Amino acid sequence: MKISNVFLLLSLVLVFSCKPQNNKGKVNNELPRIAIAGLGIESSTFSPAQTDEEAFHARISDSIFGRYPFFDEGTEIRKRADWVPTLLGKALPGGIVTREAYESMVAKTLKMLKENGPYDGLFFDIHGAMSVVGLEDAEGDLITRIREVIGPDVLISTSMDLHGNVSETLAEHSDLITCYRMAPHEDALESKARAITNLLDRLENGKGKPKYKAWIPVPILLPGEKTSTRIEPGKSLYAQIPSIEKQEGVIDAAIWIGYAWADEPRNHAVVMVTGDDKAQVTSGAEKLAKAFWEVRNAFEFVAPVATLEESLAKALSSKSKPFIISDMGDNPTAGGAGDVTWTLRELLSRPEFKSENGPPVIYASIPGPELIDEALKVGVGGKVSAMAGAMVDDRFAPPLQLTGQVMAIKEGDRDAEVEVVIKIGSIQVIVTRKRKPYHYKADFTNLNLNPEKTDIVVVKIGYLVPELYEMRGDWIMAMTPGGVDQDLERLGYKHINRPMFPLDKDMATPDLSARLLRASDEIK
Q1: How far apart are CA 155 and CA 520, in angstroms?
Q2: Do 272 and 315 fall into the same domain?
Q3: Are residues 228 and 246 in the same domain?
Q4: Which of 132, 156, 357, 414 could cross-link to 138 by cystine, CB 3.0-4.6 Å?
Q5: Whether the predicted pLDDT of 402 surpasses 90
Q6: For residue 399, what are the β-bridge partners?
Q7: Shortest CA distance to 270 belongs to which of 259, 281, 262?
Q8: SS3 for 374?
């Protein structure tokens, strides 16, 4: 080789090796490699139900993109990184997750992360209220095990529900963290996009991990039905977050209400603020925590609350249709088993509803695989008589013998699998193979039901989601029994930290000073 050529080759190598690089050692024009992973469920430890792996409907690899519209081909977020989706499982709220299901999904996640690394970042999409048999802090365990695989330098941005729990372990391993700011969660996708944008910005501008993370546990444990951001004081409390977030040196600010129906030390409210300005991060977190504590006595149910008997009396005398009654204690979207028969038994025993000409009622819903099988045999118009309900949670009422005419059959639902409407007197009972929440008008109209023209609609839910809220003529929340009983004092906590408001109403003012946590790369 000629000497001139050797010098040319050496010069090229030197120029290439001296190109400016970001904090991950990548050439500036390279896209960051970001993994996606997460498991999400609300798990009531006060329900006898258990959740298996099938309930998570886990998405693997590129199928994960379909869960988020902001990941569609050609979108700005999609173009800003080299995305590496692994496993994402999201389950309908329910009972505690079996250890076998958890370990299986974690093993699959870790295997994919190992095989597809290295990474610059991880979008960690969780709910935050997952309980697992034998674990006190499931999400803390999950993120710790993920850290062991991807390493301490990878930037993790955690996205959560405001009803999740932020343990110190989860907070330490999360470099960036945020949650919803609305309940009901109309900003869910917006919040997830914010978590991703924060992650992308920190990787692109080379700033990487925030210098400070302020974590403040707030000893308050309230149900979501008392902390809706539709009304005060939740509305004004959450309205303070943007002003904290906008301050120079602050990346994100968040308030977690926490999850009331699990009995673990991490179950309580939390405030977190992340950023690079110590004073702003600290003062912002303390301001939000103190604001939360100061309004603790002002939280009330988002709608009128009464016994079921009182609720039915109001509904029967009301001229506003439909009159919606929330069967709160067995709400499957809060973690209830969904098969408590207590409310349905009370309805069927009422003389007003014995005749076909009585006030029309829709009851949504009760699982009854045996009745489903009978209905599929006889078809629409046929008569069935079979047992339903209380296969999981029979503490409050036994399984019911339901006898009536099949009005509709629908197969193929993601959650229910099969739905049947059976008419008993003036009540149209929706029976499912597996439990399902009824949140949308189409959930009813697809079964040839017209909720807007029905006198009374009883739904296993707490506060109404937007579509039902807009549909209501009037609404009341019934204090019914179940695994997500709204009367927290009846639950019998044994493992949460005490004192805890409102269980300990006269407790002293707690220490609400900010705790600055270690960065994830400092954790051994």
Answers
A1: 9
A2: no
A3: yes
A4: 132
A5: yes
A6: none
A7: 259
A8: helix
- Single out the residue in 276, 299, 322 at which a domain terminates: 299
| CA-based torsion, 284, 285, 286, 292: positive or negative | positive
Report pLDDT for 519: 78
Domain termination site, one of 299, 320, 342: 299
Domain count across the chain: 2
Are 247 and 378 in a shared domain?
Answer: no
Residues 357 and 435 in one domain: yes
> Are 428 and 364 in contact, with CB atoms under 8 Å apart?
no
**Residue owning tokens 């506060």:** 463
pLDDT at position 28: 53
Tell me, yes or no, whether 503 lies in a domain: no
Its domain, for residue 92, covers 20-299
- DSSP annotation of 363 reads E
pLDDT tens track for 152-189: 999 999 999 999 999 999 999 999 999 999 999 999 99
How would you label 290-326 residue by residue, b for 16+ Cβ within 10 Å and e otherwise?
bbbbeebeebebbbebeebeebbebbeeeeebbbbbb
Beta bridge partners of 387: 401
Evaluate whether 53 touches 101 at the Cβ level (below 8 Å): yes
Cis peptide before 265 (omega within 30 of 0): no
| Plot region of 29 (φ>0 → left; ψ -120 to 50 → alpha; else → beta) | alpha
End-to-end Cα, the chain, rounded Å? 52
Neighbours of 137 (CB within 10 A): 20
Q: How many angstroms separate the CA atoms of 269 and 318, rounded?
A: 38
pLDDT of residue 29: 66
H helices of 175-324, in order, are: 188-204, 234-239, 241-245, 278-294, 308-317
Q: Return the pLDDT at 523.
A: 78
Q: Are residues 331 and 222 in the same domain?
A: no
Q: Which pair of tokens denotes residue 102? A: 């958890």
Residue % of the chain over a pLDDT of 70 = 94
For 422, counting Cβ atoms within 10 Å of its Cβ (0-12 exposed, 13-18 middle, 19+ buried), the class is: buried
Q: What is the DSSP letter of 385?
A: E
**Which amino acid, one-letter code, is at 196?**
I
> Which pTM was predicted?
0.90
